[in-house]
Amino acid sequence: GNLFGIVSGRGPSNLVDLHKTNNFECDFLLAANGAVVMDSEGRILAESRCDGKLARPLLEFLISQGCFWADIHSEFKYSVEERDDERDDGEFTLETLPEIPYFNQINTSLPSFEEAARVTDEIRNNFGDYLNPLQNGNCIDIVSADMNKAQGLYSLLRIVGAEYEDMITVGDNINDTHMIAEFRSYAMENAVQAIKDIADYETHGITELIEKEMGM
User: Fold this and answer.
1) Cα angle at 159 between 156 and 163, to 5 degrees?
2) Model confidence over 111-131: pLDDT tens digits?
3) How far is CA 28 from CA 9, 53, 98, 177, in A?
4) Using 50, 70 and 90 to split pLDDT, how confident is the model at 75?
5) What is the pLDDT of residues 28-39, one digit of tens each?
6) CA angle in degrees (0–180, nearest 5) for 187-192-197
7) Alpha-carbon distance 31 to 21, whole Å?
8) DSSP per position, 94-131
9) What value does the mean pLDDT of the chain take?
């Protein structure tokens, strides 16, 4: 009667590909930091959308802050590269990017953790009424202002008819903060200190966690 799933900052198509390529059995997938709730086959059960009109000004801002690329995740995945010499077939510049009706998440990266932290704060200052930037190492995942992994898990609880007390989470990086703080939680032993500070427990690995919780 237990359910096991992956909650990731990866976009929907990336997470489904990873799941299927590795033949990893699970009951649900939460992509884009909870913005897209899917079953194990990748069928969307619930999603949070951002207005597509925000995509271009956000991308322009990211490039102005030193980001050289960004991925836009929606029904389709769009990849935007600032430098012409680094673009592959199927990738876009701001000039060639088609109109985006909506997006679940836009993600990008910076050369260092410190730069990603700075740009995360700048995104929050400039777009915080509409968007929530979530730092993940030197990457930044940007979703709707009311979305994070905890909110995605609340959607899952409603879908499967489970209760708050049934949820156990485990994470290792800053974009896991909301779900680690909200639910009974574990930090991986190699997690960043900010996650260890708020988790209820620490674990060496997922197998160890499951064995502990099931009394094995």
Assistant:
1) 70
2) 999 999 999 999 999 999 999
3) 14, 30, 31, 20
4) confident
5) 999 999 999 999
6) 60
7) 16
8) TTTPPP-SEESEEEEE-SSHHHHHHHHHHHHHHHTTTE
9) 93
